[in-house]
Amino acid sequence: MNTRYKQHAMMGVMAALLLLVGCAPQETAAPTPIPSTKTPILPTQMSVPPSPTAVSVVGKTFTGPLGDGGTITFTVSEDGLTVEGGIALLMKNISCTEGGGNLIELKITIPHSFQIIEMKFRYGSDNMFQAGYGMELIGQFDSSVSVHGTFKYQDTNRPPTSPCTYGPYEWTANAQ
Prior knowledge:
Blueprint: H1 3-23, E1 61-66, E2 70-75, E3 82-83, E4 87-95, E5 102-110, E6 114-115, E7 120-124, H2 128-131, E8 133-141, E9 146-155, E10 164-175
Antiparallel strand pairs: 1-2, 1-10, 2-4, 3-6, 4-5, 7-8, 8-9, 9-10
């Protein structure tokens, strides 16, 4: 027989043996058990969403100065998720930003509640000129007992100067 033929035959036999060995049943490793000292963390269900506030402002009433001689008073809901309706704003001796108009006193009560998100809240008209009037109240909690912000009011139908914008005025308030 030819040497070359013997080499090819031998390689064929070796390949067949490797194939048989590779197909032979092999043992599989058992799964590694979780050590008893480790407890899996499972998600929990909540019936109430968590408060968006980092500090507890739940159920507190805040009051403080607004502009020059005015006041602001509002209450946070019992779940801490909203500023409750009934926000009282009082402004005294204010003038139009555009000039020409003065008010001795302006009292506003905002009847709507609005959300507190990441320790901030905002209430306001998106387009005050289009609506004919509007307001914007912005606030941010500094701590569980302190909050600050700005307030602006606009009346585009107020003679003799139209439009008339009051503010923005800065305000601060503390928990009572």
